[in-house]
Amino acid sequence: MLGLVFDSAFEMWAFWAAVLALGVFLLGGLFIVTRPQPEVIGHPKGLFLLFLAEMWERFSYYGMRALLIFYLVQHWLFTDSEASIIYGAYTALVYIAPVVGGYLADRYLGQRKAVLFGAILLTFGHFFMAFEGTGGQDDPTINIFWLALALIIVGSGFLKANISVMVGQLYPRTDVRRDPAYTIFYMGINVGAATASIICGFLGQTYGWEYGFGLAGIGMLIGTIFFVLGKPLLLGKGEPKDPEKLKGGKEFGIYGAGLAMVALCWVAIQYQDLVGWVLGIFGLGLVAYVISIAVTKLHPHERDRIFAAMFLIIVSVVFWALFEQAGSSLNLFTDRHVDTQGVNASMFQSINAIYIVLLAPVFAMLWQGLARKGAEPSTPMKFGLAVIQVGLGFLVLVWGASSVGVEVPTPVIFIFLIYLLHTTGELCLSPVGLSAMNRLSPAHMASLVMGTWFFASATGNFAAGLIAAATGAEGLDEAAGKQVVLDVYWTAVGIGAGVMVIAPFVKKLMHLDTLKDEGSLEGAAEAGIEPQEAGVHPTTKPSA
């Protein structure tokens, strides 16, 4: 066991609080799933099994994510710009992969086998991240690093696309316990996300990359073991709809296709321009296809709603392009220019998850309260507010850095403020957007429109890498670099204000007065607990 040495009391308390929280939820979950009765606190034990599996999956993912930009810059010796674009391509692919993983689970594997396959890929991927080599881009070990990223991308595609759906499968469609079940389940996400950034971040930056990445791999292995041993608790849910489709070696053929995806991602992550071209060409084609269907086949009101949805999707690209600076440029800025009070910069990646836990219920009650008074902002108005807040967050940080001078570290309070504004912006856009995609699309187009939403999320993540590269580009002097930052984020505020100005027109396109209740999106209840998490598997169900 490492003799842990902390640089400050803040770091020590944060680390041990995270360890305590992780331990409490782990032991509590184990206590529940080993009870003899089929249900505990009014829910099937399978819910808590999925809770534990997802908690460890998020622990592994966010533990790696907190360290990735530093690993690229400090170990593999990429420039800030190169590292930011690699990071953006990686996160973009993570959001594209669930489209394939969800499709294969629906048509062939079923959710349980898809989740297990994804968990195995993720376990190998996170362990391969711990192979450091000697560092530098000439080190052949970097090929293992590319393989690790590819395994994590595809593994996330199979797991994230399906595990949240399994939660819903444990309950009848009209069961009033579904929403509380998703709330419990998504607590696992936030426990994993918050604790991993602190624990893996501290170990990786203090004692060596292999400790941070290795612990993330151990977390994923534990989650996989839970999922395998707890199969009886799932009550037969998530199995293939048509087992005949998997006979004759076809199941292994699907796994082989998954490995082929790994090979494709291994290439794509090294040639980031390829990812950008695919996103651009396919994205434009997808939007054009959706609009062509709306124009030629839909009732005028339905057509207008699709136009409104496409507008919101385009706005979301701007939001995610700025929001996803957290893991790249903002992480580097925190490490180099902020008085972190002795706390490792990667540990600050936990702040967003903690804010989400605290503020998501507040926003839910706020929107409901305003709705009762007839004062709830429209969906496009909320989108405008979200973009303004994400832009203002960075401007607050620039102001904070300028107020103390270039040579003086920025007070850490401004990091807490930027994450606060970004989280409140996220809560104005992510859950609202998921709900809007379902409300605005006819039932027969729900999957297509939701797929477009997620493709926009991937595009936003890739754009985030380009922005991070531009705002932190080598060769820019201090004044020029600051001006680029100000130009980008003032532009974001301007876009947000523009969205708010035209929000009444977009609201008219939504034709809310003629909406019919065709069903609600499976997985929408958990929206907002993690960015873009719900609706990966966009089937519709009758309203409760």
From TrEMBL:
<dbReference type="GO" id="GO:0005886">
    <property type="term" value="C:plasma membrane"/>
</dbReference>
<feature type="transmembrane region" description="Helical">
    <location>
        <begin position="211"/>
        <end position="231"/>
    </location>
</feature>
<keyword id="KW-0653">Protein transport</keyword>
<feature type="transmembrane region" description="Helical">
    <location>
        <begin position="252"/>
        <end position="269"/>
    </location>
</feature>
<feature type="transmembrane region" description="Helical">
    <location>
        <begin position="383"/>
        <end position="401"/>
    </location>
</feature>
<feature type="transmembrane region" description="Helical">
    <location>
        <begin position="488"/>
        <end position="506"/>
    </location>
</feature>
<protein>
    <submittedName>
        <fullName>Peptide MFS transporter</fullName>
    </submittedName>
</protein>
<dbReference type="InterPro" id="IPR036259">
    <property type="entry name" value="MFS_trans_sf"/>
</dbReference>
<dbReference type="InterPro" id="IPR020846">
    <property type="entry name" value="MFS_dom"/>
</dbReference>
<feature type="transmembrane region" description="Helical">
    <location>
        <begin position="275"/>
        <end position="294"/>
    </location>
</feature>
<dbReference type="InterPro" id="IPR000109">
    <property type="entry name" value="POT_fam"/>
</dbReference>
<feature type="transmembrane region" description="Helical">
    <location>
        <begin position="114"/>
        <end position="131"/>
    </location>
</feature>
<dbReference type="GO" id="GO:0006857">
    <property type="term" value="P:oligopeptide transport"/>
</dbReference>
<feature type="transmembrane region" description="Helical">
    <location>
        <begin position="143"/>
        <end position="163"/>
    </location>
</feature>
<feature type="domain" description="Major facilitator superfamily (MFS) profile">
    <location>
        <begin position="46"/>
        <end position="515"/>
    </location>
</feature>
<feature type="transmembrane region" description="Helical">
    <location>
        <begin position="12"/>
        <end position="33"/>
    </location>
</feature>
<keyword id="KW-0813">Transport</keyword>
<dbReference type="InterPro" id="IPR050171">
    <property type="entry name" value="MFS_Transporters"/>
</dbReference>
<feature type="transmembrane region" description="Helical">
    <location>
        <begin position="59"/>
        <end position="78"/>
    </location>
</feature>
<feature type="region of interest" description="Disordered">
    <location>
        <begin position="523"/>
        <end position="544"/>
    </location>
</feature>
<dbReference type="InterPro" id="IPR018456">
    <property type="entry name" value="PTR2_symporter_CS"/>
</dbReference>
<feature type="transmembrane region" description="Helical">
    <location>
        <begin position="84"/>
        <end position="105"/>
    </location>
</feature>
<feature type="transmembrane region" description="Helical">
    <location>
        <begin position="184"/>
        <end position="205"/>
    </location>
</feature>
<feature type="transmembrane region" description="Helical">
    <location>
        <begin position="413"/>
        <end position="434"/>
    </location>
</feature>
<keyword id="KW-1003">Cell membrane</keyword>
<feature type="transmembrane region" description="Helical">
    <location>
        <begin position="446"/>
        <end position="468"/>
    </location>
</feature>
<feature type="transmembrane region" description="Helical">
    <location>
        <begin position="353"/>
        <end position="371"/>
    </location>
</feature>
<dbReference type="Pfam" id="PF00854">
    <property type="entry name" value="PTR2"/>
</dbReference>
<feature type="transmembrane region" description="Helical">
    <location>
        <begin position="306"/>
        <end position="323"/>
    </location>
</feature>
<keyword id="KW-0812">Transmembrane</keyword>
<keyword id="KW-0571">Peptide transport</keyword>
<dbReference type="GO" id="GO:1904680">
    <property type="term" value="F:peptide transmembrane transporter activity"/>
</dbReference>
<keyword id="KW-1133">Transmembrane helix</keyword>
<keyword id="KW-0472">Membrane</keyword>
<dbReference type="InterPro" id="IPR005279">
    <property type="entry name" value="Dipep/tripep_permease"/>
</dbReference>
